[in-house]
Amino acid sequence: MNRAQLFARLAEPRAWDLAVVGGGATGLGVALDAAARGLSVVLLESHDFASGTSSRSTKLLHGGVRYLAQGNLSLVREALHERSTVLRNAPHLASRLSFIMPSYAWWQTPFYGVGLKLYDLLAGRAGLGATSFLGRAQTLAALPNLQPAGLCGGVSYWDGQFDDARLALALARTAAREGALLLNYCAVTQLQHQGGRVTGLRCEDRLSKQAYTVRARCVVNATGVWVDALRQLDGAAQGRSVGPVVAPSQGVHVVVDRDFLPGEHALLVPRTADGRVLFAVPWLGKLVLGTTDTPRSDLPREPRPLRAELDFILGEAARYLARPPTRTDVKSIWVGLRPLVRPAGDDDADTGRLSREHTVLVSATGLVTVTGGKWTTYRAMAEDVLARCFQAGLLPEKPAGVSDRLKLVGAEPTLDASRPAVAAAAGLHTYGSEQALLQSLPGAGLLLVPGLDEAMVRFAARYEYALTVEDVLARRSRLLFLDAALAASLAPRVAAILAEETGRDPALADFLGLARDYLSWPSEQDA
Ligand SMILES: Cc1cc2nc3c(=O)[nH]c(=O)nc-3n(C[C@H](O)[C@H](O)[C@H](O)COP(=O)(O)OP(=O)(O)OC[C@H]3O[C@@H](n4cnc5c(N)ncnc54)[C@H](O)[C@@H]3O)c2cc1C
């Protein structure tokens, strides 16, 4: 269906069971679960799918070693279960990855090793491989550029990693396959109430500026760090003031070439100089360094890093890598906002200690808000949200457990053991069972850069809801996140193909500005 047909469906005079606001991991997960259970679902996303936090994560499918240290075992166990669900249902977009924690003091190997053995135990049958203790020489062989001075040994363990934006698109497309209607660039501008209850919403196609009314039995607010705006609209309609539930925290990632950490392993520093966790993770052929946890009071669409955050990441990398990257080695910098759940009445909470678990709230009018949590647990969160909708009598009850074994669009029926892992450079393999369809399109094999050909741009426009150069180069391909200068250099050609496919302005100039931002270094004043 093209965009005009999708909007024609939206304009039909009907009531939906469920209207989901927000097309990130959380909203897409809810839409898919509900549609798979036979409910009628519409999902509206104000920008592009996953353009908020859900394309800016560290890309780990993990139980959370940090939460293990905090003793939050049920959170860890649930996430470990969900980690294997994603690996099973989207094997073309997720794979297991070995992590090594180096030890620079004699006690670190047994201390972290015992914790990670517990991690294996909690994973049970969902385990991806056994934790093992490494000697000094083994650690250096596995992480060739690791700082050798003072190194005692290390611990290796297994977790998962994925392509977050492409998984979001797979969720969107699978939800559509299950009958849901999903629209990007369509912002929810108002909620509608009748007799004190939410009965629907108003939304606007951001391209045509046309407004639509959508009637729904149940409205779920899954707008991530932005949930408070919709909650306030809901409260204002009832003459109530509504306090914020989100305390946003910013996380920065820096991307450099793989030769700063060659080999097949990721590096995890469990306790940096200021007590944080730092990852150096091979991803799509590059190395991702991060992240930070800096409280913010505003909610920009494109948050930018502080100078202190970049100094922290490169400074810590220099403590652990014998030949460390410097500013001139940085290929891209991206920043995401975590929707941390604020304890009621706590305005100055330290975000490092706020809950990474999700919260589901049902307002007096029946608006259901979900926020917090993490990518890894999107499916468990969706089940939780729907359980609350049933409990509140907002939706007719449908049994859970459908999404558990639901293969996402692109997943092959049998596992392809020869497929490159997510750590390897992107390419045809990322398209899983859709490779033949992709190769039947014009431009197949006409490479723009290794791993991205012209047919992939056409595929993005025809099947993956892409409208702009940014949609293609930031989220269908991840080139903006991997090498912003390279992405800018091929943007004009991508724009030309997109314009041919969609007949619309693909916003090339906006993308070129964005690519500059992904490479720009904040001044000393932005500390
Ligand atoms: C730095 C960082 C690293 C992370 N690393 C990991 C990790 O490695 N593993 C992991 O499991 N989790 C990780 N997370 C957490 C994970 O990324 C988030 O929990 C998850 O992406 C949140 O998804 P969401 O759908 O709730 O929010 P979002 O992805 O932000 O989605 C909300 C959407 O709502 C839309 N929206 C807002 N207002 C409206 C409106 N009025 N109308 C329509 N749409 C609207 C927005 O455009 C947005 O797309 C990380 C988070 C950060 C910040």
Q: Secondary-structure blueprint of this entry?
A:
Blueprint: H1 3-11, E1 15-21, H2 25-36, E2 41-44, E3 60-61, H3 65-69, H4 73-89, E4 94-103, H5 108-123, E5 132-135, H6 136-142, E6 153-162, H7 164-177, E7 181-183, E8 186-194, E9 197-205, E10 211-221, H8 227-237, E11 246-257, E12 265-269, E13 278-283, E14 286-290, E15 294-295, H9 307-320, E16 332-341, E17 358-362, E18 368-372, H10 378-391, H11 435-439, E19 447-449, E20 452-453, H12 454-463, H13 469-476, H14 479-482, H15 484-502, H16 508-517
Helix pairs in contact: 2-7, 2-10, 12-15, 15-16
Bound molecules: flavin-adenine dinucleotide.
What are the salient characteristics of this protein?
eight-stranded mixed sheet, alpha+beta, 33% helix, binds flavin-adenine dinucleotide, FAD/NAD(P)-binding domain, D-Amino Acid Oxidase, Chain A, domain 2, 3 domains, ten-stranded mixed sheet, 527 residues, globular
Question: Would you give an account of this structure?
Answer:
The protein is an alpha+beta fold and 527 residues long. It is built from 16 helices and 20 strands. Strand 9 and strand 10 form a beta hairpin. The longest helix has 19 residues. The termini are far apart. The chain binds flavin-adenine dinucleotide. Flavin-adenine dinucleotide binds next to helix 2, strand 8 and strand 16.
